[in-house]
Fold this sequence. Notes:
Blueprint: H1 2-6, H2 21-24, H3 29-37, H4 52-58, H5 62-70, H6 81-87
Helix pairs in contact: 4-5
Amino acid sequence: MRTLQRSPHAINERNSLGQTPLHLAADWPWGTEGLLKAGAPVDSRDMRGHYPLSYASMVECWTVFEILLDSGSPILASGSARNQLLLVGLHYDSLSP
């Protein structure tokens, strides 16, 4: 969080995989809340099209998962509904249209 105080633009920086700080905070509830309060976009996708919500699911950090859902995170990336749903633990066929 000190980095954001010194360089507010860092909230939108990406690494070589297209991950933002919010993607990388997938198992850090306090950090996730701080990034969201600072304006981190909850709908950023990495180079593979995964949202931060997918990362929280992959590491099974359900606290961060809930924080992101409550902050309006999209669940699906367009064009990859089945894969995205599996990442968040949902089954495509069980959803109503």
